[in-house]
Design goal:
172 residues; mainly beta; Elongation Factor Tu (Ef-tu), domain 3; SH3 type barrels; 2 domains; six-stranded antiparallel beta barrel; six-stranded mixed beta sheet; 8% helix
Length: 172
């Protein structure tokens, strides 16, 4: 199976003199991803180079994570990684039953309970009440939104890239 990486965040700056990164967080599992001793990957988007590092320490504060890795021991060294992304390998074991990575949902066909294709998931959006799937239809029809809750989602098959939904009046 091909290794797949998830974006944990963007290194925006050095945080302290000891080489800690200030990271704009893009993960819901920061405390699990940045556990001491875990491997993460520093990725340079321009060159597509990826290097493995080991987490020394982590703390979160709002939208930022502060991550110290082995081998980066000064503010100057940390600044060399400004603009890099931090990645982790996808780990399906940390997901609870009926939970999915957003990247796995994007691109799934959305079907009604009779098997009619309604469109494809183009985006997973986070709203205060729940996650919502943005479904792009073919042609010039406008996108529609499906709340990612049991009342609407009948089944999800990531391997087949299909989501079957319960269509109620006004949804489409």
């Amino acid at each position: 199976m091909k290794e797949e990486y998830l974006l944990l965040g963007y290194i925006t700056d050095a945080f302290s003199l000891d080489g800690t990164f200030k990271v704009l967080s893009k993960t819901d599992f920061a405390s699990k991803r940045y556990q001491k001793g875990k491997e993460v990957f520093l990725y340079q988007p321009n060159t597509k180079q990826r290097m493995t590092v080991i987490v020394e320490s982590y703390r979160g504060n709002g939208q930022f994570d502060f991550v110290k890795v082995q081998g980066v021991n000064s503010k100057e060294e940390a600044l060399e990684f400004k603009g890099y992304e931090i990645h982790a390998l996808k780990d399906y074991q940390i997901l609870d039953k009926d939970h999915y990575y957003y990247t796995d949902l994007v691109g799934c066909q959305v079907l009604d309970d009779k098997g009619k294709v309604l469109g494809k998931v183009s985006l997973v959006e986070e709203f205060p009440a729940q996650l919502t799937l943005r479904v792009k239809r073919e042609g010039k029809q406008p996108d529609f939104l499906v709340p990612f809750v049991k009342a609407f989602i009948k089944s999800v098959d990531i391997e087949k890239k299909q989501i079957i939904i319960n269509v109620i009046g006004g949804l489409l």
